[in-house]
Amino acid sequence: MFDRLREDIDCIRERDPAARSRFEVLTCYPGLHALIIHRRAHAFWGRGWRWLGRFTSHLGRMLTGIEIHPGATIGRRVFIDHGMGVVIGETAEIGDECTIYQGVTLGGTSLARGAKRHPTLGKGVIVGANAQVLGGFTVGDGARIGSGAVVVKPVPPGATAVGGQARILHQETDAAREAVAAKMGFSAYGVTQGDDPMAQAMRGLIDQTASQEHQIAMLWQAVEKLSSRSRELPAADCVPEDACRTEQFDAGRLNRLVK
Question: Which residues make Cβ contacts (< 8 Å) with residue 93, sequence separation at least 6?
Answer without folding.
Answer: 72, 73, 118, 119, 120, 121
